[in-house]
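User: quick one, fold this
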Amino acid sequence: MEVLEHPHSKKGLNRFVKHDFVTLILYKDMNYFSRACTPDGSKTYCPLKVIRIMKLTFFLLVSLSLGAYAKGNAQSVSLSVKDAKLEQVLTEIGKQTQYRILYNDELLQTAKSVSLNVKDASINKALESALKSQNLTYRIIAGTITIAAKEQQMVPVKGTVRDSTGVLAGVSVALVGATGKGTVTDANGQFSMNVPEDASLIFRFMGYQDQEVLVNGRTHIEVVLKAAQSFLDEVMVVGYGTQKRATVTGAINQVGAEVFENRPIVNVAQALQGAIPNLNITFSDGRPDRGGNFNVRGFTSINGGGPLILIDGAPGEIDLINPQDIEKVTVLKDASSAAIYGARASFGVVLVTTKSGKKGSARINYSNNFGFNQTMGLPTTVDALTAATIQNDAYKGYSGNDNADMLLVIDYLKQRQADPSLPELGTSPSGNFIRGSNTNWYDAFYNQNQFFSKHMLNISGASDKVNYYLSGGYTDQDGTFKTATDNYKRYNVRAKVEAELKPWLKVYNNAEFSEGNYDTPNKFVNTGGNNVYRFLSLFANPYEAIKTADGNWTQAGALTFGQLADGGRTLQKNRMLRNTTGARLSFLKDALHVTADFTASYRQLAEDIQSLQVRYESRPGVMATYPNPNYYSSSSREIFHSVANLYADYAKSFAKHHFNVLVGASQELDKDHSFYARKEGNISSSLNSLNLASGEATVGDNKQVWGLRSLFGRLSYNFDERYLLEFNGRYDGTSRFPKNDRFGFFPSISGGWVVSEEPFFSALKNTIDNFKIRASYGSLGNQQVSAYPYIATMSLSQAPFILDGSRPLNTRAPGLVSPTLTWETATTFDVGFDLSLLKNRLQLGFDWYERNTRNMLTKSKTLPAVLGAVEPQTNAADLATKGWEISARWESAFDLGDKPLRYNIGLVLSDNQSKITRYDNPSGLFSDYYVGERIGEIWGYTNHGFFKTDDEYLQAADQSKVSTIEYQLDGHPLAGDIRFADLDGNGVIDFGEQTIYNPGDMRVIGNTSPRYAYGINLGFNWGDFDLSAFFQGIGKRDFWPGSESGVFWGTFNRWNQPIYEHLIGNYWTPENPDAYFPRLRAYQALAANRSLGTAQTAYLQDASYLRLKNLTIGYNLPATWITKLGLTKIRLFVSGQNLVTWTKLSEAFDPESIGDEPDNTTKSGNGFVYPMQRTYVAGLDISF
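Assistant:
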C-alpha cells in the first residue's frame, strides 16, 4: 500500500490509502469514479461503468465494514497523555494498531487538546475517549480510520434573559463560533432560535457582564445577567492615578481608542473635535501639518491660555503623536479634578493614555489608509466676458466713466468668440497686452487629487511579569497646490515596556520619537499678509492668462502661480524625542504604593527658507521682476524639558468606609534656545546655503529658562460608594514671578451623592440604574505669562543707518515693570449629575459651571504723558465665564433578517459665554475691553434697506461720516445705495465717541464667539458589517467679512477684482430693488470709512454649521476564512473626512477656519488661508 493525495483535494488536506480498488469506496467523487472509463484516466463520462462500480462498492462496504469491525475489536491500545494535540494522539493510535488515519487538516485545527489514559483498550474505546468532547466522529473501513465532523442536529431553543430586577429587552444572543448567527431578546426578555444541540450561546448587553451558556440539549434556558464592572467601575484616568467612574466627583469626560481607529486623520485633534462636550478644537486652516487649537469651557483670559496636555503623565506634543497609539483621552474640566496639576492646569487638563500590551501571546497589528484629498470651498467665478462687463460697470458706478483698458478687453473677448484662433493675449496700440483668456484659475491652481497614505504597525503582548507595546507609524500627505511641491511626512516610533522584578516592585519605560517634515513653497508667500490667496482674490480674473505665448509668467500669473513655483522653498522640521522611566513599589499587602518617575524630552523646530524674486513679462518682450525679498535664512529652536515626580498613594477600607490618600512632589525645568541667521542676495536658486548669499547677514539668538516646583495631595473618601468627598490641593512655586510672589496654594473640594443607592430609591431601580449628583469648587493659578515680566530688559538691535561703514548697535530705555506681579487665578464652581436608565441603555450627563478668572495681567491705570513711558502691566482685570454641557448616549439592538442589528446614538452639546467684570476703561471705549463686555461682541450699524430714489437722501440722516469717499461723484447717496438707521435720532449717522455711553448709531449687532457646540455619533453593527458616522457643528455664531475679503465683496472692493457667481443677480438694479448687495460701485468695501467697510446688520454672516466629519463603513472577514491564513482579524474599510457641510456662510469662507476676533481683521476673516481638505480613503486592518 502507498499513501496518496486525492486528486481533487487541496494539497496536504486529505490523506487516503490505495488498497486495490478501495479508493473508489473512500471518495465518491463522480468525476473521480469516471476515471475508470478510459485507460488514461480522462474525465469522459461513462455511466455504465459508474453503475457497475457503485454496485460493487455496496458489497465491498458491507464486507469490509464487517471485517474492519472485527479487526478493530481484536486490537488493543495503551496510551497515557495530558493536554496533547489530537493529531498526535491519532498518530499514536495508528502506530499501535497499524491502521491508516484519514482526516482533513482543517478539522483538527480547532480541536481541543486531549488528556487520555487507557490500557489494553479496544481501538473503538480508544477513539471514543480521544474524541470525547470534540465535535468529531470516526468510521473504520478496510484498515482505515476516517475522522469526520459530526452532523449537527439543530434544536429549537427558547428562553428568557433577566437581571436582578426584571427582564431585559434588547440583549444580544449569539451562537459562539458562528459569526453573524444570533438574535436579540424582545420586550419581554424572551428569545428563540435554532442551534446545534451542543452549541454555546453568548449573551451580551451594555452595562452587564457577558455570559456564555452551553445548550447541552436543552430547549429552554433561563439566563440572569450580572451588572458589568466595566460600567460604573470603569477606570477613569485622573491626576497621578485612576478612579472608578462610580466614585468620580469632578467634571471629567473620557473617550476610548474607537474614536481614533480607522479614520483618515493626520493628528489627534481631528478625531477629538466634537467628541467631548466643551472640549473646543479649531483649525486655523487646512495645511497638512496643521494642529488643532485646544480650549476647555470657553474663553480663558485676555492673555490667552489653554489646557495642559499630558501624554502618559508628562507634557508632550499632541500634534506629533500617532492617533493609533492612543488607548484613551480624558479631559479634566473643573478646578477640583485639575487642581492636582496646579499652575499649568488653570484652564483644564487633557490626559492622553497610550496603549499597553494585553495579556497573552504576542499580537501583531498592521493597518493602513490609502486615498486622496480634495480642496474644499473653492469659489466659482463667472466667464471672462461677464466678468469684464460687470467690472466696467462697477468702475463706471464709482467714476462716472468707462474704463478704457476694460473696453479693450471686452472687445477682444468678443473677437476671440468669433475667431477662437486668436491668441489669448493680444497687443494694444500702446504696446501693452490685451487680455483675452477664459481661464478657471481655481481649477488650475488647486489640486483635487492629493495623495494621502498612512501606515501603522504595532507589536504587543504581556505575560505575568512583562508587558510591552512597540509601534511605528508613517504618514504621507500631499498638499493642495498643483504648481509646486507641497508635502508633509511624519514618522512615529514608540516603545513601552513594564516589568515586575519583584512582587513588590515594577519598573517601566516609555520612549517615543516623532518627526514631522513639511516641504512647502516659501512660507511667507504662502502665509504672509501678501500671500498667494490674497493675490488670487485680486487677480484670478478669467480673462487673465497665466503665462504668455513665450512661456513667461504674466503679472497676474507671477503673483500667484509664479510665487509658488519660483518664489523659493520652505523646509520645516518638527522633531521630538521623549523618554519616561519610572518605578512603582507596593507595600502593606498592595495598600501602599510609591511611584517615582522622570521624563526628559527634547524638541527641535528647524526651518530653512529660500526667498527668490519672480520674473514676469509685463509687456510683450519686456521682462520685469516682482520685488520679493531675495534671501536665505536658517533658524532652529531647541527645547529641553524635564519633569521629576515622586508620590505615594494609600488605600484603606473598613466596614463601608473607603479612604484614599495621595501625596507627592514635582520638579519641572524648561530650557529654550533659539537661533536665527539670514543673509541677503541668493547667488543660486537651486542650492540653499548661507555661504551662497552675497549680501548683508543678520544673526540672533534667544535663551530662556523657567522652573516650577510643587507639592500636591489628594484625599478621597466614600461611604458605601453612596456619599463621596474629595479634597485636592497643590502648592506651586514658579520662577516667572518675583521672589516674594512666586508661591501659591490652590485648593479644591468636591462631593457626590449616589442617590440611586439610597433605600428609598429601590422602587425606581427598574427604570433608573444609577443617579449621582456632583458639585465642586476650587481655584487654580495661571503662570502662562511671559517668562520674567517683572524684570526690566533692554534689547540690542542694529540701527537703520550706517556709521563708519557699518550699522551700529543701538538700544533704548527699558519700559516700566510692576514689582508686584503675581498669579492669575481661575476659580470654578461646578454642579452636575450622571444618570443611566433602562438597563444602562440610556446614559446622560449634565454640568453647569461658572469660572472666574481674576487678576489678569493688563496695562495699569493711565499715567501722565510727561512720564514718557508706557504703563507697566499689572494684575488689574477680571473675567467671568458661565456655561453648561450635556452628553447623552443610547445603545440597543433589534433583529434584522437573521442577525441582530446593534446600534448606538451619542450626542454632546455645550454652551458658554464670557464677560469682563473688571477692567480699567473708565471712558467705556468699545475699541478696548470694558466692564460688562461679552467677549466676541461685534459693534456695527443697523441697515434700513436701500435708498429707493436719488432724492430720498434729502429726508434721510447724513451718512457722510460713514461713507467719506464714495459719494464724491454725486455728493450724496443715489438709488440703490445703502441706507443706515439713525438710532440716536440726531440726523447724522456716526459712531459718537465710540464709547458704551455715547456709541452714536452703533450697537452690538452680533458676536463671534461660537455658541451651542455639538457633536453627533452614530454607530451600527450587523453581522460582519459596521458603519459609523460623526457629525460636528456650531449652533450659533456671527461673522463679519474683513474689508479685504475680495472673494466675498468682489468688485465692491476693487473694481477689477474677480466676479463670483454669488454676485450675479444679487446686486441692486431698478429691475431688482430687493437685491442682497447695493448698486454696482467700486471701493465700497475697501476700508472702514466706506459704506460696506464697516460692520452692519445686512451683511453680518451666519457662521453656524453642521458638518459630516467622518463616515466609515467596514467589513470584517469571517473567522472561518482568516484562520486558514493564521490571522485573527482582517477588516476592510472605506472612510471619508469632512464630507458634507450645511451652512449659510458664504462660499468665500470655511466655518471652521474663520477668525474669532471682534474686528475680524485677521487673514482668516478675509478668507486668505490654506483651504480645508476633504479626504477619501480605503484601508486594511490586520491582526495576527
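User: anything notable?
Assistant: The longest helix spans residues 47-74.
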